[in-house]
Design brief:
The complex is a heterotrimer. Chain A has 3 helices and 8 strands; from the N terminus they run H-H-E-E-E-E-E-H-E-E-E. Chain A is an alpha+beta fold. Chain B is globular and about 50 Å long. The chains are: A alpha+beta, B mainly alpha, C alpha+beta.
């Protein structure tokens, strides 16, 4: 035999350490990855304080919701969101155009569209003005 | 290399190939989760003959296995090749650096780890290019690899014990090549 | 034996990594946006658990709704409406919150020589920015007579407010949102939150530090975005402070080439000219909100003077687009370069 048979065919102390090491490594990497990984951003659509839709920002689609004044149409495309059509008189929500973060709100029709998701380091925490 | 050695390597490769094919028949709950049964043969080869024959057995198993299963030069082939080479190399190096410190169980777990790391790197470079996806599966691959590595290691130990007891003519002890 | 020690070290290393990731990564950001105080309110908090964050934010929103019920100019049932209805008739007993806001509004009026004046209500109700029509000049002239903060009588002992002249109206719209941000922050703190941000429309107050130690990054809106990606003109690093911006782009209409916006000069009753946007930074949102309006009305030069005198930090963009900042702002503000 080239190798000492007893040394290679019985579980050694080093084996146990290796087992422990890898178990600890997989557990810690699991928690580490969970902390670091960005979860996908979501679009939340609320009408009069009630959550109507939650959808991933990465899915392109057009959604319409009914508010007290009528139908508001919201478009999600290329990881951006905008209000396409709104029955409100001032159309502030339409003028906001595409947003990548934050929220579009239509006060008259009580529609609130927010983009939620974990913030990156260089991300803006708030907007004044 | 003597002709007797060639014959043994061919025989071991055939065993590895058989296990490889057998494993392909077992349905897996997750596509990237593999038992790596053929690694038992790699470990046995490594134990009796050393690194070079173990690498040869691995190469033959990967090449013929992919031809048989129809994955030659496909994504699975490159993952299998890179993982197999990295795993076998790491196991050979670890036994050479620390002789008698680990049993084949420890060696196998280390091999499984490097096998998986290599596959992740290859997957990242060649196919996925999204670090999130790689990072997300890494902890599970490490955990699964440790488990299957330990099981394969223990299995190879039984096999080695049996072979040593029987002094099978095909696998009689030789000097390292 | 050396090898074993080495291996032991290898086993201990990931274990300590595990412990570290458990203890340090626990405070996560939670952000909720809702409609409150007739506008969009966003609250961000860093908390250990979702329940704790949601409970705190819920209570903060409740506080904002309570304040809105007291201070809303447009609601029939608010204390402000009651004060306005009782103008020239009798003093009105009010809550300590309403009293506090009016008291602070008067101090800002004093500090700015009347550029900030909550009695603008009589004039501002003549302007309609949805219908895009100018008020009748005669009516405006008449209503202007009802403007004058000196005719507000406060009685601290009895907590009453009295408007001396009939027809006088107070409008806390230019100060209530900042006050709301302050109060919401106080509620969050009382609920055990150590760091967070409250944004009531554009009036933002932050407290505590983010878990990674970085300061809060607040974007300042570009008053004249020419194309996509020019939404912000600057980014501000804010720590434990409040910031408000008043701009001529928020509510306005353009008629015969003239921009009519919602920031009215109490001396003329017409939109103030000279600035596109004014951002003010100081400790309390109630002051950033009021002073951003006041400085806007004063214009770039006189505005800067007042800021220097009182010790406010800020940034002014004048009507030609020139940006000037106070000394203390240098280093805290980075201009967004055009791509």
């Amino acid at each position: 035999m080239r190798l000492n048979s007893s040394g290679s065919t019985k579980t050694t102390f080093a084996d146990k350490l290796v087992l422990l090491f890898f178990i600890a490594l997989s557990l810690s990497s699991f928690f580490f990855v969970n902390e670091v990984l960005p979860q996908g951003s979501e679009v939340r659509i609320e009408v009069a304080g009630e959550l109507k839709y939650t959808l991933p920002l990465s899915d392109d689609r057009i959604i319409s919701v009914e508010g007290p004044m009528g139908t508001t149409i919201i478009e999600v495309k290329n990881k951006r969101v905008r209000v396409v059509k709104s029955p409100c008189p001032n159309k502030i929500c339409l003028h906001q155009d595409w947003i990548e973060r934050g929220a579009v709100v239509c006060l008259p029709n009580k529609v609130l569209v927010t983009i939620t998701g974990p913030q990156q380091k260089k991300e803006i925490d708030g907007i004044t003005g | 290399m003597e002709s007797r050695d060639r014959y043994r390597i061919a025989l071991l490769s055939a065993y590895a190939l058989a296990l490889h094919g057998f494993e392909a028949l077992i349905p897996s709950p997750v596509p990237w989760l593999r038992l790596g049964l053929s690694n038992i043969i790699t470990l046995v080869t490594l134990f009796f003959y050393g690194l070079k024959p173990a690498l040869m057995v691995t190469m033959i198993r990967v090449l013929l296995g992919s031809l048989l299963l129809g994955t030659f030069l496909g994504p699975a082939f490159f993952l299998s090749l890179g993982g197999g080479l990295a795993g076998t190399l790491s196991m050979g190096i670890i036994t050479a650096l620390f002789p008698r410190v680990f049993s084949m169980m420890g060696v196998s777990m280390i091999g499984a780890f490097f096998h998986n790391v290599a596959q992740l790197v290859i997957a990242y470079v060649l196919f996925v290019q999204r670090i999130e996806g790689i990072l997300a599966v890494a902890p599970f691959l490490i955990a699964a690899g440790t488990l299957t590595g330990a099981v394969n290691g223990v299995a190879s130990r039984y096999l080695i014990n049996e072979i040593q007891k029987q002094h099978s003519p095909a696998l009689s002890p030789t000097e390292p090549i | 034996m050396m090898k074993f020690k080495l291996l032991l070290l290898l086993a201990v290393l990931p274990l300590s990594m595990l412990l570290l990731s458990c203890t340090s990564g626990k405070e996560k950001p939670y952000k909720v946006s809702r409609i409150a105080m007739d506008t969009l309110v966003s609250i961000t908090v860093y908390a250990r658990s979702e329940e704790k964050a949601e409970k705190a934010m819920d209570n903060a929103f409740k506080e904002l709704n309570r304040l809105s019920d007291l201070l809303n100019f447009f609601s029939e049932t608010s204390e402000v409406a009651l004060i306005n209805r009782s103008a020239g008739v009798s003093p009105v007993k009010v809550s300590k919150e309403t009293f506090e806001v009016i008291e602070k509004a008067l101090s800002v009026a004093e500090d700015t020589g009347g550029a900030f004046d909550i009695t603008i209500g009589a004039v501002s109700s003549l302007w309609d920015f949805h219908k895009k029509t100018l008020p009748d000049p005669e009516l405006l002239k008449k209503s202007l007579k009802s403007v004058g903060y000196k005719n507000i009588v406060l009685d601290k002992e009895h907590s009453t407010v009295y408007l001396k002249k009939k027809g006088m109206k107070i409008d806390l719209g230019a100060i209530a949102k900042g006050y709301g941000a302050d109060k919401a922050v106080a509620v969050l703190k009382n609920n055990g939150i150590r760091s967070g941000l409250v944004s009531v429309a554009g009036d933002i107050k932050t407290f505590g530090a983010k878990p990674d130690g970085s300061s809060w990054r607040i974007g300042i809106k570009n008053p004249r975005p020419q194309s996509e990606g020019e939404e912000l003109i600057a980014v501000l690093s804010l720590g434990n402070n409040a910031v408000s911006t008043s701009g001529d782009y928020e509510r306005f209409f353009i008629k015969d080439g003239i921009r009519y916006h919602h920031i009215l000069d109490p001396s003329t009753g017409y939109p103030a000219s000279g600035c596109r946007s004014v951002s003010i930074i100081t400790k309390e949102g109630v002051y950033t909100d009021a002073f951003s309006t006041a400085v806007f009305i004063l214009g770039s030069e006189r505005g800067m003077e007042v800021m220097r005198k009182i010790g406010l930090e800020g940034m002014i963009i004048d009507d030609e687009g020139n940006i000037s900042t106070t000394e203390g702002m240098k280093g805290a503000v980075e201009l967004v370069r055009k791509h």
